[in-house]
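Could someone model heme C with this protein?
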Amino acid sequence: MKNTGKWMTFFLTLSVSLVWASDGHHTEKTLKEKPKSKWDRAVQSIGVDYQKNVEPIFKVSCFDCHSGFTSYPWYHSIPGIKGMMDGDVDKAKKNLDMSNGYPFKGNGNLESDLKAITYQVDKGKMPPLKYRVMHWKSGLTEKQKQAIEDWTGRSLDKLDQAEP
Ligand code: HEC
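Reply:
Sure, complex below.
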């Protein structure tokens, strides 16, 4: 029949284009996974740097207040103290939430967050004194402070260079 040939061509074209399309889709996907702009690449590189050099410190010294992973000390069960701590953890997370890695969530932007971290760490304001006197979270060592500030410094440079 005359039509069979037509249908054969149709199906052949269809299957070829399906394979083609899925291949094209694959390429597009790998492209999508790559960071697009200079800015995205900078943010990604800061994240890798963070994971390696800073997150282990933050996990111990900051996550209790700045993330969803809070492990409370025994005195959290004391009425009054509980309320104060819960309120502070709420506030801390609103300011800066480290739960999902870098970039952090919270009310700042990437640059203001890095600057705020540098400031708080440099001035020895974090973890807050009232908690340090209760020995819930002891303060950062000089070496840890240096590692954090080196990271914020490198990261601000990266963002600076990536800015259009
Ligand atoms: C015991 C709880 C606690 C721990 C631990 C803690 N913080 Fe905080 N942090 C807070 C609270 C509460 C605030 C909000 C202060 C306010 O709004 O007055 C805050 C605010 C901040 C801010 C200010 C955010 C902004 O936008 O200005 C930064 C930066 C910060 N913390 C960094 C850190 C870092 C880095 C660590 C770990 C080295 C840390 N904090 C550990 C409770 C904590």
